[in-house]
Amino acid sequence: MTAQLIDGNALAKTIRADVAHRTDALKARGVLPSLAIVLVGDDPASQVYVKHKVNDSSETGLKATLERYPASMQEAQLLSRIAALNADPSVHGILVQLPLPRHMDASKVIEAIAPAKDVDGFHVASAGALMVGRPGFWPCTPYGCLKMLDSIGYDLRGKHAVVIGRSNIVGKPMAMMLLARNATVTICHSATADLKALTLQADVVVAAVGKRNVLTADMVKPGAVVLDVGMNRNDEGKLCGDVDFEGVREVAGWITPVPGGVGPMTRAMLLVNTLEAAERAAG
Ligand code: NAP
What we know:
Blueprint: E1 4-5, H1 8-28, E2 34-40, H2 44-59, E3 63-69, H3 75-87, E4 93-96, H4 106-112, H5 124-132, H6 140-151, E5 160-164, H7 171-180, E6 184-188, H8 195-199, E7 204-207, E8 225-228, E9 232-233, E10 239-240, H9 245-248, E11 254-255, H10 262-282
Parallel strand pairs: 1-11, 2-3, 2-4, 5-6, 5-7, 7-8, 8-11
Antiparallel strand pairs: 9-10
């Protein structure tokens, strides 16, 4: 079997077009969806990420403002800036780019964001809302993965999904989303005794570890859907995922590539969440 590709670039393009359309509708009502991005310090990867986020926003008609602060910024100053953004009705979404400098408590900073503006979905209130099935904001990466499954018309009811990785921003929320769609979910992590025994039973595997070749062809049930969240570098320095793509594509039914898979979908879902925040605020 050669797996069909789930093209994250193409799907993200469709989602951006929908966001642009809905943004126009909001603008016609006098509301300009607006995202405040806060970057503290000069982490090179973060600088690239925020640039993408600003460009993606402006390309879809959303307003994105990038606020840059030196790494020497005090936590209290950041908290007071977040309080001001919380209180500003013209700002619908607030994103504090992680990682923060080491002298700051990232959890405390994220918890300072008003849940109604938490478009990254990292606030504990957002996690709680997802857990109990209430409206909130879903973290962009697992939300993008779910959209990829939707794009192929995949019905998760009664399927076994294995999520490899249990971070608060990917693995755990992914598992909750799959569970909400009536899949049976197994969450694996570094202490999982026999990962292969579990993945071989899986109809869907989501790999979110950050290590190359965590999932190889011998670990995949024929026809399974494989979503690769990982972002790693191969020996040639090229971006690659957690999945041995060339091997697994011969066994899986569907597979996401890296690059061009989950990455662009993560970016697209931030736009969706920001627009959603503006729509909710507009009533
Ligand atoms: P993380 O916080 O480091 O979590 C990694 C998880 O993998 C942990 O739960 C860890 O288990 C588990 N793990 C480590 N080795 C394992 C093994 N051999 N077998 C099974 N599980 C193992 O990472 P993250 O933030 O979730 O990110 C995961 C990957 O996704 C990274 O490559 C990251 O760059 C990428 N990512 C991509 C996007 C995107 O847009 N494409 C977005 C976010 C993240 P323990 O909990 O036991 O330590």
